[in-house]
Amino acid sequence: MPRSLLRYFTALSTLLVLLSPGRAQSTCAETKNGLRPPTTRGGGGPVELAPVDILHQQIDLDLTMGNLIRGVCTIDLTPRIDGVSSFDLHLEALAVDSITSATGPWAFLQDDIRLTITPATTIHANDTVRFTVHYHGDPIVDPSGFGGFYTSAALTYNLGVAFQSVPHSYGRTWFPCLDDFTERSTYSFHIRTAGGKKAWCNGTLVDRIPLGGDTLINHWECSGSMPAYLVSVAAANYAEIHDSLPSDNGHWMPLSLVAAPGDTANLRASFTHLPDAFAHFEALFGPYRWEKVGYVLTTQGAMEHSTSIHYPRSIVDGSLSYETTMAHELAHHWFGNQVTCDRAEEMYINEGFAEYLSYLFLEQVYGPGRYLAEVRSTQRSMVQRAHLSDAGWWALADMPQAHTYGTHTYNKGAIVLHSLRSYMGHDAFSQGLTSFLNTYAFQPVNTLMLRDHLSQTSGMDLTDFFRDWIQQPGWAAFEIDAQHSSPGEDGWILQLSIGQKQRGPAAPYQQVPITVAVVGTDTAQVFRDTVLVGGPSTDIALTIPFEPAFVWLNDDSRLSLAVTGSTHTVGNTATINSTMANMELMPRPGPNTLVRLEQYWVAADEGITTEPFAYVISPDRYWRVTGSWTDSQRFRARFPFDGRNTMNTLDPGLMHDTLGVTFHEDSLVLLHRRTPDAPWSRWGVTIATLGSSTDGHGRMEVDSLATGEYVLAWRTSPVGVNQATPRAPWTLWPNPADHTIHLTNLEPDTRGTIRMLDARGRIVMTTNVAGPQTTIHTEGLPTGHYTVTFFDDRRTAILIGNVIVEH
Length: 807
What we know:
The chain is of the alpha+beta class. It contains 11 helices and 46 strands. Strands 5-4-8-2-1-11-14-13 form an 8-stranded mixed beta sheet. Helix 6 runs antiparallel to helix 7 (368-389) and helix 6 (351-366) packs across helix 8 (407-424). The radius of gyration is 33 Å and the shape is elongated. It starts with a helix and ends with a strand.
């Protein structure tokens, strides 16, 4: 360590610190306007670079002054253009005392976060200059609580991004820098600590130099270039666990886990699978290019500072509950640190990729089932509420800075990458991204660079994918509008018309490789193929080696679409709660039955109804129910509804007050159609209110369930059908029926009346009941859907169920 540095810190300890309060953070708009604006928008154009390029920064920092810090930052830079007479750096809430160079002092002006520096002489294109900024102050924390410089008696550390302040890069809260995502440099650190504290920074520890008493200079060097927001320091009386990880390059990578002595056992236990994450990420995306793997426990976090991740102590409890966070932060050393998005609007390149790599970690450690469960759960959450959480529908490649760290960036970013992997295939995905990381290592990148590189390495034109999934907001849903099968020479010819709808302000997707699954009457017979669909409608024909019974799209969840569902083989009477489909299925005793429940997060086709102009159909969602049963009495079901103004809302477009009339749940109905070209007709339900009858929160309970599509609607006018109480132990068969319907009740002395109502609520048949068995003749009834209700001697209505009459 140079003697001059030792003399500097010795003298520094005797100085009286004079504080100059920094100006308050300006508004988002003012800050954005004051920084270098991007030259293009909308997904990946180049950003305008600063007129100077910082090559190296040495940060000498005194952390022995309580809540205050004093720093000396020596900067080597070169101009990007000729004739630079002044340039800007960023520093917030800290006062600059002077700026010096070998040729004398330089002039400067502080204006909010901007530090304008005027060298003594103009800097020319081939010059490399060195100057030193002397500064001090009380560093700040972002108003959100995440980001900035944290000081306490036990622990001092920084977090390099701010959730609220704009720009979000937050290195400027403790040293002068070009605080953006494009400027990268190498770093040296000389951190002064006392009272038993040591300091941990990026890179490799060179030495801890005693100055006398309990004071140390902690000297660190980081050879990997990084943006200012990734630069880190933490100082505490901590213990360090030293270990190593086998690396693909044949060497052992140093591992440093730093925590309070009482936390080290929990840290080891919670990081049990860190070696698995490291090995898997190297196998998929190439070698780890940094000096070490390091985690330091802090009170806030997690923050992916290169080689020295600041990780929240609160989630290190000895369990594996938060190990995906561990994997996410490690993953940043490929996506975010090795390559960095060149502007905050494309933060999915950092955070979406890191989140997706945490899913790949789960796949490696726990298997494909665990991976798919994570993808499906995230997909359902995103299509339901991402636009609510982030106050709008946003494109991943053009995210407003108010939502840089929102749910779109992290979670939609992750599941879109799952879809990209499905488009490309696993090997091409892995190889293309490895090549991308190698080509642009330690550089800023953007969406267009990513698109073009993956297209080049894979030989696939990914223009459609990036335009549809990344450069526009919203989602797509694909549905079967029509299907027809007929025997052919080599099997059965299945003709499908596949329609596309959008959730949110998206244009139709193009060239989408979607899985078609065809199930036979013997449900063990399953045929799968991948077909390309796009635009409003696509017609396809497939040759199937057996007679098709029903068809599913994307049941393997290869793509993250605005359709969520689940498949079940039902062999007992246990209730099935499908969170993916937002349905509860309650089986009655019966044979093994294959069931697929799907929730489409788009509007159903209005089509026609058996009662024209009687209903307003939900614009929010509908259900598709398919499977291997024909008797609708095989299942009871519950369809929840929720129109409340919350993050969990399901039906905001349907359930709201209109023209001053308060919405009331008794106006809700459930409509059903067997096929997309059949008319909608009312399905018998009991409405269970959860809360008040006007808050739009409850469920539809049905006593029978046929295959087909279901949608919520509300009546435009009363139809004269009173709500019936839940059914008694009645059995109704067959369903569908042709000439007769048989009804059985467990009570031998049953007395009363059975009524059949058509889909318009009209009584079409009345039969007296005297005993446990009743037969209804239906020869004279037209084909359609009917509701069967029993009225006992006290005129209490008991819903028996719905029945389909087919001739």
